[in-house]
Automatic annotation (TrEMBL):
Coiled coil: none annotated. The lineage of its organism: Bacteria, Pseudomonadati, Pseudomonadota, Alphaproteobacteria, Hyphomicrobiales. SUPFAM superfamilies: NAD(P)-binding Rossmann-fold domains. It comes from Nitratireductor aquibiodomus. This is Ornithine cyclodeaminase. Gene3D superfamilies: NAD(P)-binding Rossmann-like Domain, ornithine cyclodeaminase, domain 1. InterPro entries: NAD(P)-bd_dom_sf, ODC_Mu_crystall, ODC_N. Belongs to the ornithine cyclodeaminase/mu-crystallin family.
Length: 361
């Protein structure tokens, strides 16, 4: 089935629910989705200069953050609403929830509304894998995965799909999280090792991924834990006052970021001076800047998530939805017979009290 709205159904917008998203991902296959999504993100990083760019609009509180992440390439517009509330897991809720909209710039009409809780997990992992494609040591197969919460399995699957990583060393301060991760990844082509300390987890790792959730200045990795030649994928430090790495690691590393004005506020580099040098990932992907230059180099991807990645994810889902029936149509847009006669819609609505009042008057 190909989704093409007819002229008499322009008020209907495809909506991808959580249920539909799971159907779509499982029908295509998780690794294929991650690989294809990585490709879409890579394409959009290559045309980075086409996009409007602004740091996300954030409303911070003691409990967490609510953010809007908008961007446009001049033809389409996309935004994501997303929260980050680490305390939510203690109340049986998700730490992160999200939804997004993809729209036509030419007429302003939305083309797609979708859940983005699952989609954000997929695009975060895909972006990590894309960065590692350019920054990690060649032939990397072993990854330490510190923080075994909701993002961990997605990271593992993305690195397997993009780089062939198949040896995972798992650690979380919460043993239950590690058991969950171990259970979910068993039988999916990984050699899994449960570690009792973060120091044990990083032993022999080519790549170190940190994906913890607590909103605090934390030191998940200390300087003595990071040897030469590794690639660090720092995912968890993604808002003001929230970090995972000791400052000394940053000063030893070549740091790569998505959008410096945002990352300097939210990322690991909030610990550094404003003028500390960083490289932009899009320039590496576009061949303007060298990523990994020599074997002993420590590379650090300071990942906070940026709106262009959500745009890529929305674009990907829109393309896939048009080939499937994994959506419902929402009666979202007013569509009067005469575009200027919006009030007339109310008058002509079956059982309209306004029409009854007019007749009575």
């Amino acid at each position: 089935m190909t989704y093409t709205p007819s002229i008499d159904k322009l008020n209907l917008v495809p909506f991808v629910s959580v249920h539909h998203m799971m159907e779509l991902v499982l029908e295509i296959g998780v690794e294929r989705v991650l690989a294809e999504l990585t490709g879409y993100i890579e394409e959009d990083f290559r045309r980075w200069e086409d996009f409007d760019k602004t740091p996300r609009v954030a409303a911070h509180s003691r409990e967490g953050v609510i953010e809007l992440m908008p961007t446009s390439d001049g033809r389409h517009y996309g935004f994501k609403y997303v929260n980050g509330h680490p305390k939510n897991t203690r109340e049986g809720r998700q730490t992160v929830t999200a939804f997004g909209v993809y729209a036509d710039v030419g007429n302003g009409y939305p083309l797609l509304i979708t859940e983005m809780t699952i989609l954000t997990a997929l695009r975060t992992a895909a972006t990590s894998a894309l960065a590692a494609k350019y920054l990690a040591p060649e032939g990397s197969r072993t990854m330490a995965l510190i923080g075994n919460g909701a993002q961990s399995e997605f990271q593992a699957m993305a690195f397997k799909a993009a780089l062939g990583v198949d040896r995972l060393r798992l650690y979380d301060i919460d043993g239950g999280a590690t058991k969950k991760c171990l259970r979910n990844l068993s039988g999916l082509g990984f050699e899994l090792t449960v570690c009792t300390t973060p120091e044990e987890a990083v032993e022999g790792a080519d790549i170190i991924t940190t994906a913890t959730a607590d909103k605090q200045y934390a030191t998940i990795l200390t300087d003595n834990m990071v040897g030469s030649g590794v690639h660090i994928n720092a995912v968890g430090g993604d808002c003001p006052g929230k970090t995972e790495l000791h400052r000394d690691i940053l000063t030893r590393s070549d740091i790569f970021v998505e959008y410096p004005p945002q990352t300097r506020i939210e990322g690991e580099i909030q610990q550094l001076a404003e003028d500390h040098p960083v490289e932009e990932l899009w320039q590496v992907i576009a061949g303007k800047v060298k990523g990994r230059r020599e074997p002993r180099q420590i590379t650090l991807f300071d990942s906070v998530g940026f709106a262009t990645e959500d745009f890529s994810a929305l674009r990907y889902v829109y393309d896939r939805v048009r080939e499937t029936d994994h959506f419902i149509e929402l009666d979202l847009l007013a569509d009067p017979d005469e575009p200027r006669d919006l009030f007339g819609m109310l008058l002509r609505f079956p059982g309209s009290s306004l029409l009854a009042a007019k007749k009575a008057g």
